[in-house]
Amino acid sequence: MEALFYVFSFIAIFSALMVVTMRNPLTSALYLVLCFFALAGFYVLLDMQFLAVMQILVYAGAIMVLVVLVIMLLNISKIKSVKTDLHQKIIGIAISLVLLVEIIFYIAYGTTKKPTGIFTHSVIDKIGNTRVVGEFLFTKYMLSFEIASILLFVAIIGAYLFAKKKF
């Protein structure tokens, strides 16, 4: 299990770096799909098969189809490259250094805590992790779930209006 964690970690980190560094947006989108599959592997390692399947169906499937369609609709390959100013590079380097310091600090001084709550492994095995996710979505996180659904609905309407407009 630990070896699989390191394999999925390497794949996720490598593909995330390739998403950021690739100049071709379609290649970048394909590396993002690979990153989504690695994240689904993490869910499988955590015994959350339902979330792993939803990760693949929703993100690697539907969202990436939407991203590829937007890339093709906008024809990004014909857009000229934008030159970056010196202050943009300085800000990017500063943010990268801050994140690197945070990662090093967490590795050196961070502690891991065991998960707490009413749902132990035996309870999850008895009732199933799909039911646990459903109970959380429709009780504790109901407002967040509804806000996310409204935002997705607005995004769908915006995408439709954007695609309908003539360039």
Describe this structure in words.
- The model has no long low-confidence stretch (mean pLDDT 83).
- The protein has 3 domains: 1-80, NADH-ubiquinone/plastoquinone oxidoreductase chain 6, subunit NuoJ (Four Helix Bundle (Hemerythrin (Met), subunit A), Up-down Bundle), CATH 1.20.120.1200; 82-112; 115-167.
- With 167 residues, it is mainly α.
- The protein is built from 7 helices and no strands.
Task: Write a brief structural summary.
The chain is mainly alpha-helical and 167 residues long. It has helices at 2-21, 25-45, 49-74, 86-109, 121-127, 129-140, 142-164.
Key attributes of the depicted protein:
mainly alpha, about 0% strand, Four Helix Bundle (Hemerythrin (Met), subunit A), about 170 residues, 7 helices
CATH class descriptor of the largest domain: Mainly Alpha
* pLDDT averaged residue by residue: 83
Radius of gyration: 20 Å
Structural class: mainly alpha
From the N-terminal CA to the C-terminal CA, the straight-line distance is 52 Å
CATH superfamily of the largest domain: NADH-ubiquinone/plastoquinone oxidoreductase chain 6, subunit NuoJ
Number of domains: 3
Helix content: over 70%
Total beta-strand segments: 0
Number of helices: 7
CATH architecture of the largest domain: Up-down Bundle
**Which stretches are poorly predicted, pLDDT < 50 over at least 5 residues?**
none
Order of helices and strands: HHHHHHH
Question: Could you give a short account of the major beta sheet?
Answer: none
CATH-defined fold name of the largest domain: Four Helix Bundle (Hemerythrin (Met), subunit A)
| Structural shape | globular
Residue fraction in strands: under 5%
